[in-house]
Specification:
Strand order of the largest sheet: 1-2
Order of helices and strands: HHHHEEH
Structural class: mainly alpha
Distance between the termini: 28 Å
Helix content: 55-70%
Radius of gyration: 13 Å
Largest sheet: 2 strands, antiparallel
Number of helices: 5
């Protein structure tokens, strides 16, 4: 379960930004499986540190072909940053409409 307030703070930089649960689900479904996994772990009700995510990556991060792959700490950080950039883009597009 994602802590919506933490994620909104990371995306919009403020908590006054409103977002419906179904809209957040749509945004998360547009991420790759790796990006979604990292975001779900980082912004869970009990968030995990990047090091902790990197430790479980060898068993947990799926690739596009469905197999599992490992990650090092730097790669997890890159995946998180890319996913947050995508989510920020989605929020800017939403704000324009």
């Amino acid at each position: 379960m994602i802590n919506k307030q933490l994620l909104l703070l990371a995306i919009a930089g403020e908590l006054s930004y409103t977002l419906q649960d179904d809209e957040l689900d749509q945004w998360l479904n547009r991420l790759t499986s790796r990006e979604k996994f990292v975001i779900e772990q980082r912004f869970a009700n009990e968030p995990m540190a990047l090091k902790a995510i990197a430790k479980i990556c060898p068993r947990k991060i799926p690739t596009s072909d469905g197999s599992m792959t490992g990650c090092v700490l730097e790669r997890v950080r890159q995946i998180e940053n890319k996913a947050l950039r995508k989510l920020r883009y989605f929020s800017r597009v939403r704000a324009r409409n």
